[in-house]
Predict the 3D structure of the following.
Amino acid sequence: MKLRNINRGLVLGGVLALGVVCYTAYDNNQFKTSKPEIEQTMRDYIADLTSANVGSSDKLKSQLTDFVDKHYADYTTSDNEYASSKSGLLDEINQAEVATQGGDITSAEYDIKEMSINKSGADGAKVTMIYNVCYDVSNGDPTFLTTNGISTMTSGNYTNSDNYEPSTSSYKAIFSYENAEFYLLRTSDGWKIATSSDYGYGEDYNFDDNNSDSVADESKSESEIVPDSSADSAENTDSEGADSVE
């Protein structure tokens, strides 16, 4: 009798173990098939984030709010206290003085350098990215949205030029994000971002209007033209160079 009970326990344990192995293999395979969708979700995210920062100050708050509503899922629990969630970003946007800033971003281009996608939990994914953004600024130091929340440019700290006047000088603001981190959730509306963060970034300002430097890396990046959100019509074209918003 004892031997029979032991054998039954071994059989049940073996069946359970086999079930776990089969489910794990199935789950991992399902995630692999989701990777292209996740990658496109992140490419759309960076394109829309860059585009949402372009335009006049009076439209900026609504553009940024629409961007967050589109790309973020409602999510309240996070082990990373420095990560930004949907509710946190919306609070920052509502509190920011974006409508009274001293300058506007007139156009921009972005370049996604690297992207890594890994499984995180049953219906989640972790994405790490390296990317650059170059904004054309009309004057002043505008407020803009990053993966970590609202930020303000500090062009005055990066020039010794006697001709530089924040109220009138136009310039290029170049931001290099070397470690942006995202946690995504699979929802009924597709993959959405639960939290986003970046751990340090480089910023540089170019005050020569005739300089044509961009964030392009022609050997790696795919180009996508995204119009200014205030324009009446849109046209997407593919070419070599950085992804741009203008």
